[in-house]
Design a protein that fits this description.
With 216 residues, this protein is α/β, with parallel strands linked by helices. The chain contains 8 helices and 12 strands. Residues 123-216 form the OmpR/PhoB-type domain.
C-alpha cells in the first residue's frame, strides 16, 4: 500500500482528497500548512507527496526545495490553481515529478499518481551488497538465484533502505506492511526481520522500543 502525504490548506478539499485516496487503497496523512507537512515528513516515510502551492507561511515550491536539499527524493505532484508557465517551470525546477492545475479531475489524478509510482519503482532496481533486489517482482537474488524471502519481508527491506538510516518505527512498519483490518503484530514483524537478518545480519538494527533502522 503506497503512503501519500497531502498538503492542502483548503480544509474541505484536503478532506476530499484524503477520503478519495483512501477509497482508492492508499494510506494517507494530511497537513494544512508547510510546517506541519515538514514535521510529518520527518516522522514517516512516504511514497508520494501531493502538495498545494499557495499556502500559509511559505509556498509549496519552497517546501519541496527544503526537502530536496535535505536529501528527500520522494516523488512529488503539485496541485495548484496557478496556471502560468513561470509557475510550471518553477515547480519542475524545484524537483516536482508532475503538476496538475485545479480544478482537479480525480480520475486523471489517480492515473498520474500511478504513473509516478511506477516510475519510482522502475528507478529502484537496486543492488544491496552482494544481492540484487527486483522491486517490481519483490524478489531478492544472489548470483541470479532467487532467494526464499516473503513479499512482506521484501517490502520491509525496501522501507528500511529507503529511510536512509533513519529509524522507522514499528507502528510505521505495520501501517505500511499490513492493510487496515489485517492483524499486524510484533511477532509477525519479528519473523520478517529474522528473514532479512539471514542475509543482512549487520545492516538491520533494532532500536529498542522504537523500531528498526538500516545501516550500511
Amino acid at each position: 500500500m503506497a503512503h501519500i502525504l497531502v498538503l492542502e490548506d483548503d480544509q474541505l478539499f484536503n478532506e476530499t482528497l484524503e477520503d478519495f485516496l483512501e477509497e482508492e487503497g492508499y494510506a494517507v496523512e494530511t497537513a494544512m500548512d508547510p510546517y506541519s507537512a515538514l514535521e510529518i515528513s520527518y516522522k514517516h516515510v512516504f511514497d508520494l507527496y501531493l502538495f498545494d502551492v499557495n499556502l500559509p507561511y511559505e509556498n509549496g515550491f519552497d517546501l519541496l526545495e527544503k526537502l530536496r536539499q535535505s536529501g528527500d527524493t520522494t516523488p512529488t505532484i503539485f496541485l495548484t490553481s496557478r496556471n502560468d508557465k513561470a509557475s510550471l517551470a518553477e515547480g519542475f525546477g524545484k524537483g516536482a515529478d508532475d503538476y496538475m492545475k485545479k480544478p482537479i479531475d480525480f480520475d486523471e489524478l489517480i492515473l498520474r499518481i500511478q504513473a509516478v509510482l511506477r516510475r519510482q519503482i522502475r528507478q529502484e532496481h537496486m543492488t544491496i551488497g552482494s544481492y540484487r533486489l527486483d522491486t517490481v517482482a519483490k524478489t531478492l537474488y544472489l548470483d541470479e538465484e532467487a532467494l526464499e524471502v516473503t513479499k512482506k519481508a521484501i517490502e520491509l527491506l525496501l522501507l528500511l533502505v529507503q529511510a536512509k538510516g533513519e529509524v522507522v518505527s514499528s507502528d510505521e512498519i505495520k501501517n505500511r506492511l499490513w492493510a487496515a483490518g489485517q492483524n499486524a503484530s510484533e511477532g509477525a514483524l519479528r519473523v520478517y526481520v529474522t528473514q532479512l537478518k539471514k542475509y543482512f545480519p549487520d545492516n538491520i538494527v533494532n532500536v529498542r522500543s522504537v523500531g528498526y533502522r538500516w545501516v550500511e
